[in-house]
Amino acid sequence: MLNKYPLWKYLLVGFVMIVGIYYSLPNLYPNDSAVQIRATQAGLVVNDKTLERAEEVLDEAGIEYFGAEVSEQSLLVRLYSSEDQLKAKAALQTGLGSEYIIALNLAPTTPDWLLALGGKPMALGLDLSGGVHFLMEVDMDKYIASRLTSFESDIKRNLREEGIRYRAVSISSDDTIQVILASEEYQDEANTWFRRNLTEFAAENTTARNLPAINLTLTEEAIVAMEDYAIKQNQTTLSNRVNEIGVAEPLVQRQGRNRIVVELPGVQDTVNAKRILGKSANLEYRLQSQDGTGEVFTFRDSNRTVMLENDIIVTGDNVTNATTSFDENGNAAVSVTLDSAGGARMGETTKNNLQQPMAVLFIEQKSELIGYEEVNGEQVPQYRNYEVKEVISLATIQGVFSSNFQTTGLDSAEEASELALLLRSGALAAPMTFAEERTVGPSMGAENIAKGMNSVAIGFALVILFMVVFYKVFGIFASVALTMNLVLVVAVMSILGATLTLPGIAGIVLTVGMAVDANVLIFSRIKEELAVGKPVQSAIDAGYRNAFSTIIDANITTFIVAVILYAIGTGSVKGFAVTLSVGILTSMFTAIVLTRALTNLVYGGRAVKKLPI
């Protein structure tokens, strides 16, 4: 029978509508303003005592709050407004001190019955709900110095392997390594090897200590290449770390010679982000010095010291994978996998140094709150950045190993997990500090949301008015489909975890117009079929069937453009492309399937002489 769906089709359409409504509902529950408190170190516990201290600070400052709770080593305090949020952050920073990171956050209010099946609201972009903006500065001087130290170790090892005798290899200035040879007979041989293998340096013959020497100076091209590598590697590492944290559609972008901009839209939780992004934790494996020359370091768990060789065997740069594990005593550890170069170096070292102690040096960039400075009437915290190097393990090499081994000596399973994350996501090529930290408040975002919603509402109302006036009952069908299309767009984006931006709202407005285009095509074809004298039921069937190919063609071409925009675009362009793509897919369903189901329910199988269209 024409224009009648089987029962399973009606049930399927109804099921899709119910699922769409369910997963779009979380967006009706706005987030609460909140502050989150987390310890700066993995070993520092956040518990009920921390909550009591925080409550005392807020009570003394006269700041009203509610819903304070401790979970997963962090403390969340809900506040009544964004103004109270800013006041609470300033008060807690002063009251709790530098042991804790205080961050603005948005606490979800989605009810449990929606959370039960994974319902969650869309994340809003930086321009809608605010977010976090970090400007991170790469310490290029330290990076070049570390590269020179690595070159120094490699030169010593390779000269020994080549049989070129030398008296000393040392860094003589910021970008120069001086090699003092044992006699003149080795100078030509050394120069030849340097020209072939150290193209980053310009070699110059000289004398030192009345012996022949060669000064190896980094070329300008090599310095620029190293800086570019450091920036790109740090960008990649930061992107990996952001992905580990689970931030949707972040922006990690180079700015100038030595800075990287990181924007985390959608939420204002800077606690975990700052702790992971800013932490430059790394490892160095070194042998214990046997000849009394080297560098002295302190053990983490005591005041004991040990002298380690200057030569570094491998670092976190050589790590390709790292996972948390436990040693034979049940203590937290990290299982490390090295790349081929690191594995070869470790294998050679362990083979030649059996029964010799090898240390694991833990290196961490830290910051300390030193006070506040008034900027534009606000108290801005000032930090001092410093580096800590501590020995976490010193063990005797009992056998030969290379690419796979275990690092022990960590304080807790949480610290092991954190270190594994940092190593797994890639070591920072160069240390970084926070040059600027800015939290974009929700006030501007609220204004953008209001304007965006107004544009959607006005466009939606005008389209419905047009459809009802021109197509009467069928215009009502189109209006129902258009409403459900918006619900489905919101639901799909919520399920996918997409981030809604202001350009994304523009994509929704465009979707409203595109969705109704399909109905206009269908209804116009029905009118044409009626005009040539076809029966009502045949005209309805022909209208949907004949307009289908045109609708498909038009939507496919637009969808291809949206995919291209997403592939080559960045930031807001991607946000527009996402909502446009989702809107195209949902509009195909609502404009064709849903309106056909409504038409069939009302007119299907009935003897209709005149169609109100």
TrEMBL record:
Domain named SecD export protein N-terminal TM: residues: 2-104
GO cellular component, one term: plasma membrane
Compartments where located: Cell membrane
GO biological process: intracellular protein transmembrane transport; protein targeting; protein transport by the Sec complex
Membrane topology term: Multi-pass membrane protein
SUPFAM superfamilies noted in UniProt: Multidrug efflux transporter AcrB transmembrane domain
Annotated Protein translocase subunit SecDF P1 domain residues: 231-288
Subunit structure: Forms a complex with SecF. Part of the essential Sec protein translocation apparatus which comprises SecA, SecYEG and auxiliary proteins SecDF-YajC and YidC.
UniProt name for this protein: Protein translocase subunit SecD
